[in-house]
Amino acid sequence: MQLEITEQDQSFAEGIYRMFKQKPGSQHIAGSFAISCLSAILRQNKPENILEFGAGIGTMTYAILDHEHQVKQVTVTEANDFCIEQLKKNLTKSHLQKLDLHSDDNSKHLISGDFDLVIFDGNVEAEDFRHLREGTVCMVEGFREKTRNAINQELQKSGLICNFKNYASDRKQYFAFGWKKTGLGFKRPKFKLVKHDKGCWIGQVEKL
Ligand SMILES: C[S@@+](CC[C@H](N)C(=O)[O-])C[C@H]1O[C@@H](n2cnc3c(N)ncnc32)[C@H](O)[C@@H]1O
């Protein structure tokens, strides 16, 4: 599958990223580029049922539920109590009506059915891959090579494969320059390394 990320996807993503960056516990939220990829998937593939592993404080969940493409339901898993509390605060009443939250690892076995889009942004185990079928779009946020390999090991048992493609922003690693005040009131130059976005990995499950 080939994703076309538009300016509309980028500005939608930037707005959500900026809003969530201000919220408590925002250290591990999905980056703006990953959210723009998610927006492109929603626009192009129009998934109805979505499963997200590792909802955190809800950045990606919010993006799905607030997108102009209206999904039927979003099933999410989150094990951290602080994140669950923030997730509920960060979503609107109408968002919450479409949310099926599995708040601890013990209730994951209750998730049933196949999904059109599965997002991997937290801890997963082999049994979580039972929700994948031919045609499911998989989105793996960040590098997570182990998760991608585990997905394909499990899929191969059923004669399936997911050919992941890396999508990364073209922003390269660079040094940002600024000034820092010393204790004596002098200014000294300050360099900060701005790292290259790790991007995300996206593919669609198909026959081997
Ligand atoms: C990469 S984060 C998930 C981010 C989420 N998908 C989002 O875009 O907001 C993966 C996991 O880290 C944990 N986590 C994230 N933020 C945390 C926080 N502020 N405090 C404790 N755990 C956190 C949660 O268990 C979460 O499932």
Describe this structure in words.
With 208 residues, the protein is of the alpha/beta class. It has a single domain, classed as Vaccinia Virus protein VP39 (Rossmann fold, 3-Layer(aba) Sandwich). Helix content is 31%, strand content 25%. The chain has helices spanning 7-21, 32-45, 59-66, 81-90, 93-97, 145-156, and strands spanning 49-53, 73-77, 99-102, 117-120, 137-141, 160-162, 165-167, 174-181, 187-194, 200-207. The strands form two sheets. Strands 1, 2, 3, 4, 5, 6, 7 and 10 form an eight-stranded mixed sheet that branches. It is globular. Bound molecules: S-adenosylmethionine. S-adenosylmethionine is lined by residues 25, 27-30, 54-60, 78-80, 82-83, 121-122.
> What name goes with the CATH superfamily?
Vaccinia Virus protein VP39
Oligomer: single chain
Percent helix, as a range, is 25-40%
Spans of at least 5 consecutive residues with low confidence: none
Strand content: 25-35%
Report the CATH C-level class: Alpha Beta
How is the CATH topology named? Rossmann fold
What's the number of domains? 1
What ligands does this structure carry?
S-adenosylmethionine
Task: Return the string of H and E elements.
Answer: HHEHEHHEEEHEEEEE
Reported for the largest beta sheet, the result is: 8 strands, mixed
Strand tally is 10
Radius of gyration: 19 Å
